[in-house]
Amino acid sequence: MSSNGEVLRRYGAASEVDDFATMGALKHPDWQLELPQSGEVFVGHDNYVAMRTSRPEGLPRLKGLRMDGEGDHWWGEDIITYGDGSRWLVVSIVTFKGGLIWRERSYFMQPFPAQPARAQWVTRVEPAL
To answer: How far apart are CA 101 and CA 111, in angstroms?
Structure first.
């Protein structure tokens, strides 16, 4: 695994246990998180921590599933469980700059039923959630 892959692994592990200090140390000073589905961009680690810790139902729980990438471009797949019990699959595209996480772009999804009309062309697997 490249050094950027190791940074992302450490970042994911820190996120799973709400270790915001470690997460902040692995972020570039110009770090941003973009959520394209809602049109939000979180600029800076302090804003991210405030968003994560101010949820009225409590901190969301994150479980990393897998990650891969090369050079400065990586991706990760996680499951986030919120205080209301809802579970979401999250795919994040991560860009590094100077060995630190510079940009994150995250997409949130929930499961949907398989369509019977496609059944003849697919192999069924267990859904991620």
So the answer is: 29
Structure confidence at residue 93 (pLDDT):
98
- CA 106 from centre of chain: 6
Place 50 in a pLDDT band, splitting at 50, 70 and 90.
Answer: very high
d(Cα 77, Cα 14) in Å, to the nearest integer?
Answer: 15
Task: Please provide the distance, in angstroms rounded to a whole number, between the alpha carbons at the two ends of the chain.
Answer: 27
Domains belonging to the chain, first-starting first, are 3-110 (3.10.450.50)
Backbone angles phi, psi at 95, to 5 degrees: -115, 135
Radius of gyration over every alpha carbon of the chain, rounded to an integer in angstroms: 16
Question: Would you state the structure tokens that stand for residue 36, as one six-digit string?
Answer: 């394209």
Query: Tell me: the pLDDT tens digits for 86-124?
Result: 999 999 999 999 999 999 999 999 988 999 999 999 999
88: tokens are 């979401």
Question: Cα 117 from chain centroid?
Answer: 32
